[in-house]
Amino acid sequence: LIRLQVHTKARRHEYEIRIGRGILASLGGELRRCLGKQVERIVLVSNPKVFGLYGSAVLRSLKAGGFAVSPSLIGDGERFKTMRTVADLIRVFVDNRLERNDGVVALGGGVVGDVAGFAAATYLRGIPFVQIPTTLLAQIDSSVGGKTGVNLPAGKNLVGAFHQPRGVIIDVETLATLPQRELVAGWCESIKQGAVGSQTLFKQTTNFLTQLNTGGGLVTSGLEDLVTAHCAFKATIVAADEREDATRDDRRSRRILNFGHTIAHALESVTSYRRFRHGEAVGHGMMVAGELSKNLGFLAPSELELLREGVRLCGRLPPANDLDLTAITEAIVRDKKRTRGHVQWILLQRIGKPRVVDGVKISSLMLRQSLIDALGIEEAGR
Ligand SMILES: NC(=O)c1ccc[n+]([C@@H]2O[C@H](COP(=O)([O-])OP(=O)(O)OC[C@H]3O[C@@H](n4cnc5c(N)ncnc54)[C@H](O)[C@@H]3O)[C@@H](O)[C@H]2O)c1
Predict the structure, then answer these.
(1) pLDDT digits (tens, 9 = 90+) for 230-278
(2) Model pLDDT for residues 280-307, shown as the tens digit of each residue
């Protein structure tokens, strides 16, 4: 069991991330430590799939910890990350007479965490909340940092709140049941964190992936160490920039986590959010951002090769080479309009050293060429 302390600047929020193998069995005690003695009642938020796999073990262990637990299941998938689901959950909190000192526990991936966290952030102006993330993405990224929220028809994550959890409990063994594509998407996010984080984190990630690809098992002590290193990285970024200060563009601002995202959003949009898991689109997006960095003259070709190899190690991505170049650039322009023309690209100077670059520095010709080279798109008429 590894414990990581998270401090945010305000120091009002200090909590622990506990990472281990098989710790769902001792969840009751872990949760007691996070929530304190006074908490009696818990609403356990999950979805049918995750609850089917881990629900009974979790319920048993929470009851052994002396909690009165009511499970509440939300639909599985991004389409349930809505205000409607939040309203339904809050009704469950009311029915269970949750009070200020009671708790909400999220058992699942990023969707369950974001929805349950937002409901906990708003009910009674905020009640204690604990995350038990069960996807790779949730374990290395979304459960750490305190962002919660839901989508609106007008766009993703448009409503939300910062609500730091009382604790995050990570059992890496839960990743053994994760579908392959969810793993690939999570690995892409881990390459992203390595690429903007540090050479050490990048190397640790690619070493693990190389081992995995040559037949090593997934759930090893290497995995615990890797998840810990990623949580520590995310926690450092969050501690320095809890609310993603829009005026910051330095190498440790929270926005560097958007590496690969400008292109990822465009790819998701031109495929109507049907072809790619978000992390898979980020995989392609990082290749394009790397190509742009090289074409602007500040990323050495050998470093670009390391990035490419890192993305390759994540597994097969759905193809992007059949997509229409103009449709992609138009999607980027639409995104730009939404942000009133301020597109800031997160590019790379080298592995571990991101650089924020103003969109005006990137000509449309260079963007097109980078898309062609990174995604393997055939230009019409070539
Ligand atoms: N709050 C943040 O800081 C933050 C950061 C990044 C992403 N996000 C959000 O996270 C969401 C994506 O999260 P996600 O990738 O975890 O997707 P997800 O929550 O939809 O989970 C993916 C799939 O895996 C299943 N699953 C979960 N755990 C499993 C397990 N152990 N075994 C088998 N199946 C399992 C789920 O039921 C689901 O079908 C998005 O909504 C995104 O906006 C939030």
Answers:
(1) 999 999 998 888 888 878 888 888 899 999 999 999 999 999 999 999 9
(2) 999 999 999 999 999 999 999 999 999 9
Whole-prediction pTM: 0.95
- Residue 109 CB less than 6 A away from ligand 1: yes
Phi, then psi, of 250 in degrees rounded to 5: -85, 175
151 Cα: distance to centroid of ligand 1 (angstroms) = 14
The torsion region of residue 223 among left (phi > 0), alpha (psi -120 to 50) and beta comes to: alpha
Distance between Cα 326 and ligand 1 center (Å):
31
| Tens-digit pLDDT profile for residues 24-57 | 999 999 999 999 988 999 999 999 999 999 999 9
146 CB within 6 A, ligand 1: no
Which parts of 9-67 fold into alpha helices (H)? Answer: 27-35, 48-64
Longest dimension (CA), the chain: 70
Residue 195 to residue 328: CA distance in whole angstroms: 24
DSSP for residue 139: I
Q: Ligand 1 pocket, 50 CB below 6 A?
A: yes
Tell me the sheet residues that pair with 70: 43
249 lines ligand 1 (CB under 6 A): no
Question: Model confidence at 364, in pLDDT bands (50, 70, 90)?
Answer: very high
If we measure between CA atoms, which residue out of 172, 77, 166, 183 comes closest to residue 117?
166
Q: What is the CA radius of gyration of the chain?
A: 21
Indicate whether residue 114 lines ligand 1 (CB < 6 A). yes
DSSP 105-138: EEEESHHHHHHHHHHHHHGGG---EEEEE-SHHI
Confirm or reject: Cβ of 157 under 6 Å from ligand 1.
Answer: yes
d(CA 79, CA 206): 32
Residues 134, 50 contacting (CB under 8 angstroms): yes
